[in-house]
Task: structure prediction
Amino acid sequence: MGLVTKEQDEKRPSQFIKLEDKSKLILFSNLYKAKTHFLKAKNTSVLCGGEKCYFCDAGIKSRMEYFYYGEVDGEEGIVRVPASVFYALNDQERVLEIDKRDSIWIISKKGSGLDTEYGVARGKEAGVPTISLEKANAKLTKVLDIYVKNLEQKYKEFSKEPVADFDIEEEIREDERSSSN
Result:
């Protein structure tokens, strides 16, 4: 570590483990999901407000976020799984008639940002999990309940701002580009 002279270059570490190309993923928990909106003008996400959501009404598309407690390349923690990876894991689980928590999954990743594409291949069997399903679910829920409360607070804060403060047209264009990939 040591002396840092470019303090403005320091980034807040993510509380979630990222998937990279050739990552080896093992899942220990059940799924935790949250419906959110990404506010590009604020560079942050907010929780979707449901039926009478301010951001849905403003035309900002919602998205589902998928989380597991698992292990990526030997690092154990909370993993945010892209939707395409989540659905690919479900397809493999259904077709192979296995539990997705019993395998090591090899992730392929190409591109970046909105142009990122992921692939999933089943590796070998994961063996005996290092943590029970119940403990993994408890760890996942503890962290993500706080995460969702923070997203809820951001919803309350930003939904008080006039819609004009958000570049709705740009948000819609971004959503259309990401859904066409």
